[in-house]
Amino acid sequence: MSAVADLDAVLAEAETAIAQAPNAQALAEVRAGFLGKKGSVAAVLRGIGALAPEERGPAGQAANQAKVQIEAWVDARKNGLAAAAESQSLADHHLDVTLPGAASRVGHLHPITQVERDMCAFFQGLGYSVEDGPEVESDWNNFGALNFPEDHPARDVQDTFFVKDSTNVLRTHTSPVQVRAMSQLEPPFRFIVPGRVYRYDLDPTHYPMFHQIEGFCVGENVSLGDLKGTLYAFARHLFGPQAELRFRAHFFPFTEPSAEMDVSWGEGWLEWGGCGMIHPRVLQNCGIDPDRWQGFAFGMALDRAAMIRSAIPNIQLLFDGDVRVLEQF
Ligand code: DAH
């Protein structure tokens, strides 16, 4: 057999082996089997020296062509394998971009925050500003300036959380912000104070931390009638046009006369807060001339309004943070 015929046989063999190589590693082995130092082509080349001189040239040429041809088949197969591997990988990691995503849960405002914002919007519509003060408050602002006598029962440890040395307390009501605001505002003015307050009390309608909203209006001709009109408008805004108020004569050190106020929204009466005409001594304590200026004040439980509006039977449900409860509002 001639060297050229040998090469033809080698090429035929190579073509099949290359086409059948199942992966890149097998292909590299096949390539070495034909083109490596001990490969079939090299074996043919080694035999060339034994050929007649006129046969050597064509045989060498044919061997080189065979190398080029095998190299080309190997490259083509390599590309084919890579492309197949890539489409396999794409198929394996198929991503369906049309699948609906996992919906994230949307939160909402806490029922207390909802009511508080509603209350603020109502009073801002009447020209009230919204004032703020600290929850750790001086004994003077919380009690003294508001005309509480030294031995007033509200100062009793059963109601008040004292802070360390007893000159500061956790504010027991939003009324101390009256004192703070009066020192900054020039009469006439009117403002509300929504905020957290603290008392040592725990049952289905009381919690050691709760919320109040304070109202304060100072002018030259502010009357008890203005107070009642304002509170009626407020109650009807919150609870609907059927809401009724009931005023019971009461005592607060910082108002005179004073009343406690109950609200009915169609199902009995609930104590809601206190109110009255600002005591002249409170105005005086805060540098406002009581002979010229007078006004009214009120303070009520904000949490109760949220409980009424959302029919929540127990105040603790408002503060437990149980999403199953809160998401209903
Ligand atoms: N601060 C009172 C309380 O917490 C509520 C109150 C009553 C506020 C009468 C007032 C008021 O401004 O005039 O019990």
Summarize the structure.
With 329 residues, the chain is an alpha+beta fold. Helices cover 44% and strands 20% of the residues.
Give the ligands present.
3,4-dihydroxyphenylalanine
The CATH architecture name of the largest domain reads 2-Layer Sandwich
Fold-level CATH name of the largest domain:
BirA Bifunctional Protein, domain 2
Give the count of structural domains: 2
Give the CATH class of the largest domain: Alpha Beta
- Mean pLDDT, to the nearest integer, reads 91
DSSP summary: helix tally: 12
Structural class: alpha+beta
Q: Write down the overall geometry.
A: rod-shaped
Could you tell me the number of beta strands? Answer: 10
Across the major sheet, the strand order is 1-5-6-10-9-8-7
Description of the molecule:
This protein has helices spanning 3-20, 24-35, 40-48, 53-92, 111-125, 139-142, 176-182, 224-239, 280-285, 302-310, 316-319, 323-326; strands spanning 129-130, 136-138, 162-163, 168-170, 189-198, 209-219, 244-252, 255-264, 270-278, 294-301. The chain is 44% helix and 20% strand. Strands 1-5-6-10-9-8-7 form a 7-stranded mixed sheet. Strands 2-4-3 form a 3-stranded antiparallel sheet. With 329 residues, the chain is of the alpha+beta class. It contains 12 helices and 10 strands. The protein folds into 2 domains: 3-92; 111-326, Bira Bifunctional Protein, Domain 2 (BirA Bifunctional Protein, domain 2). The mean pLDDT is 91. The N and C termini lie far apart (96 Å). Bound molecules: 3,4-dihydroxyphenylalanine (DAH).
